Amino acid sequence: MPGSDVPFFWVSLFAYLGATILYAANVALSRRWLERVALVTLATGFGFHSVALVVRTIATGHPPFTGMYEYASCLAWATVLSYLVLQLRRKAENIGVFVAPVAFAVIVVASLFPKDMESQLVPALQSYWLQIHVTLAVIGEGAFAVAFASSVMYLFKMRGAKWLPSLESLDDLTYRAIVIGYPLFTLGALFAGAIWAWKAWGAPWGWDPKEVGSLVIWLIYSAYLHARITAGWRGKRAAILSILGFSAAILSFLGNLFLGGLHTYA
């Protein structure tokens, strides 16, 4: 049913806003229970967001990957998913104070795009490679978003923000998030994308702006991992590379609006 996902989407948006406010309040008041309530609020928003994506998938007959609204919504969802997974595996106080605003900002951007449902896809999109390509790429970018948040926190910590986790913890969180996101993005954006392009357009690579953007993102995170493993890069330099990587991902996404190319139908 057209628009049936929208109420769940708006609930998740306001839940992410609520989590952002609660995390900020915890920083100001230093109340442990506020952090717990913030985490529960964020997880609740994630639950409603998941329902919204499922409802939209059922209504259209295909995964929600074919428009700017859908991709931005999925990116916000993947950001929260990555954070919740990392939080369960390695608890770190106050990490959510930067992750929640990132998720909220992305979902606000999603809300600005048309939410019309397209049940009939153009031929190029009628492929299971679309699902593989976008699913892996967006989850990878969600992990990069968490790495971006922890990298920004690292720079704040360097300036004396005592309420943040230690520099070592933030550096380790950035690395763990990128280690999760890098193989997913590599397989999804590059390999699956090349196979899908070959099947849809007859060539695995065409220097489309979106393809070039994905390559730039991959090169930045490849440089991050290479520098860390071979040269021992940590700290500020590594944080800056992480921030550059996610900034490139955002520019690549927004490039759909004005750069043209084969991906503009999305």
Outline the structure in words.
With 266 residues, the protein is an all-alpha fold. It folds into 2 domains: 120 residues; 145 residues, no CATH class. It is built from 8 helices and no strands. Helix 3 runs antiparallel to helix 4, helix 6 packs parallel to helix 8 and helix 7 runs antiparallel to helix 8. The chain is globular and about 55 Å long.
Order of helices and strands: HHHHHHHH
- Report mean pLDDT, rounded to a whole number: 88
**How large is the count of helical segments?**
8
As a percent range, the share of strand residues is under 5%
Topology:
Layout lengths: L5 H24 L2 H29 L7 H22 L6 H16 L16 H31 L8 H35 L7 H23 L3 H20 L12
Supply database-style keywords.
mainly alpha; 266 residues; 2 domains; 75% helix
Describe, in short, the structure shown:
This protein is mainly α and 266 residues long. It contains eight helices and no strands. The protein has two domains: 120 residues; 145 residues, no CATH class.
